[in-house]
């Protein structure tokens, strides 16, 4: 699609553009000036802005707008008498002239929520393939972005091998548990994850601020009976809760709760956040659900506490529904990664016979999303 028309609005306060497919959108003069792509406004190397809002005249207006060959919009700004050029494609990707979002708990288009139906199509890649082929790595990372879950096979069973996976896209986030941590039976464990007990579906480390946004779990040995891994899409659970009990959804999104962890004499981790976190525009941002790490709730009014617990129970019941879970048995050399702000993971109990040894580590989504964006940009350039 190419630009076809450009008309000034409100004495140059804005411009209305129309593309060849009939799409129209308005852009304010102040927005266009702030987002100018010229070298006086943006650094050519990293694209960072070189001016502040105070460098832009408050009475900025458009004096003219003209479409020229090559799908280019040429603008002249007053009172600076500054010439700006934008491509129609660049503007098309950044249209903000859309209806205001009024829904609470919506997800962006790159997010796909899921239930047990994902069992047969969890994004999966072999480590060597991901290392050798950028497209395979990009597809795997895109799966993490879309579903909050992916599996990788073909890892070494050497201790610490999962670090290689994290370093494919970002950096390990070291915590009090170390650069990585062991998940196997121990005597007098410091955490219930280190026993053979089954674990309720949960997100990890809600007592941290900020919480680790990615968790990786790699299997080094697994000859024990049971111990299947289970994952649940917390965003899907929140959507079901909103459909079945809007008042419960509102309570869990409105009030914060407290989480804490004291694993040693010198460790006191505490955080206060809602179980269902929404952005200012209602976007579903994060789920925090961890019964083991919940502290006494003291930020909910007396009049709402009983209703809050009913809402909490309702969400827990939804999470426990068999139709919500994806279940798989890990074998040596397998790894799965979850978006820890979204996907809850669990484990069925396992017996003392045989050995079950997993290692886990944390990373953050900013590295993964940065690597994915760079890969997608390079693939787009190669395709053009």
UniProtKB/TrEMBL annotation:
Cofactor(s) listed in the protein's UniProt record: L-ascorbate; Fe(2+)
Xref: Pfam families: GBBH-like_N (PF06155), TauD (PF02668)
* Swiss-Prot/TrEMBL keywords: Dioxygenase, Iron, Metal-binding, Oxidoreductase
E.C. no: 1.14.11.1
Q: What would be an example GO MF term here?
A: gamma-butyrobetaine dioxygenase activity
Tell me the first and last residues of the signal peptide. Answer: none
**What residues does the Gamma-butyrobetaine hydroxylase-like N-terminal domain cover?**
10-91
State the source organism's domain of life: Bacteria
**InterPro entries per the record?**
AlphaKG_dependent_hydroxylases, GBBH-like, GBBH-like_N, GBBH-like_N_sf, TauD-like_sf, TauD/TfdA-like
Domain TauD/TfdA-like as annotated: residue spans: 119-362
Q: Which family does it belong to?
A: Belongs to the gamma-BBH/TMLD family.
Name the UniProt record assigns to this protein = Gamma-butyrobetaine dioxygenase
